[in-house]
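1st attempt posting a full record on here, be nice pls
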Amino acid sequence: MNFATFFAFLLGAATLAFEVYGPRLIQSHFGFSPVLWASVISVFLGGLTVGYFLGGRIAEDSMRRTKIFFLWMGAGLFVFFSPVIASSVAELFLSRPGAPPLWEPLAGAFLIFFLPTVAMGTALPVLVAITPTGGKGAGRHTGRLLGISTLGSILGVLGLTFGLMGRLSLPQIALVLALPWVAGAFWMLRRKTRPINAISTLLFLALLGSLPHAEKTLWEGDSLLHHIRVAEDKTHRALFFNNWMESVMLIDDPLKGHFHYIEAFHLAAHAVEKKGRVCLVGLGGASAARTFLARYPQMEMVAAEIDPKVEELAQKWFGIPSERMEVRIQDGRQMFKREGAPTCKVVLLDAYSASRYGAWIPWHLTTKEFFTEVRGQMPEGGVVAYNVIGQVDGASSWPVQAIAKTMGTVFPSVWALPIPESRNVVLFGFTTPQDEDTDWSTLVGWGGAPELLRQLTSRMTLEIPQSKGIPILVDDFAPIDLPGLMIGP
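the predicted structure (as tokens):
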């Protein structure tokens, strides 16, 4: 195999790996959603398209080696500094007041990724032009290099997903993805500089560019699903997904300091007389798990957490209870569908993410089919409590109203509990009809219940308005994870 064929493979791997790396690089700034993925993919395809045309012109230029050297070196340096560049570009948008427009991820992705992908797109046409054909026809020769480049792309994205993510930080991944372009640039110039020199230079730049965090960060890194950070101040410890606070607790008293909606979850336990199995979807920092198992010795819990890194960090920094607690590393819906699904008297649904674009909820955990599967694992008298970012009416009410309407097709009574001083609403679905005149304070009782829980019960309402056009969410149509729907009136 000659060097041109080798670099066709190597640069194909680096290009597609960088495309998959792109959404992970900017999701902490713009939020994770289908809009983000569509934006990054379209920008990459657009940049590569321009690069193919440019590469075809350069391939016939007598100065092509010098031009390609600067293009590929620029691509390599850009990839290496991409975490810093992405943060700088994101600040242009994040400093704008008000609700962000839906097109913002597309504009950000264009500014961040378009130019380097143009440079990357020049690779294949140039390599086709300079590779010895060995007597083969142009079509056969081009097809061979294209096949080798595509094979590199497949192995590159698999290597990134199964090898690098979860083991290396974003800057370290950027270094790995930058090396093929730097090595290719020096090779094109036909100088004696070895790729190892480029590696040494980039490692030196990495050392110069490494700066400590201003705040006290206990752990920071990437899993396959999130950029995760565990940080603390003098009183509180918090878990962040993509710079959004997911869980918080008091360091000196782990049973306190959590978000108020966790207290609303406890109303479900009081409704079932504090007995039975609790099923939790979305472990996070284990706030619900800690408080439920501490307060109700006759209850046990099964939790579905899709990210094994989250469980590991919850064990280390937030104290998952070891007794009466089982954590299953699986998707929340799979926990209710697969063989061996647990029977649950109480189901707590807390699997969501959020960003400056509003609430982002996994759509497959909001549909009629999902609630039917959950109801199939519940005895009579069971309760589902669903934490939703939004409001009962007005701005940001779409997800609350849609999920409530969908729950109402499976559960005979659905009640809403807006959380004061936050954008959370906890929806309760009951397997048996509830009296509309129920005094929820009698369920909580006045002995030993936290004052906050008693206060919350006064806000419980059966009146969940349904704005015009609110659909019942089904597996074939559940646009609940499009952030533009979460921010409008």
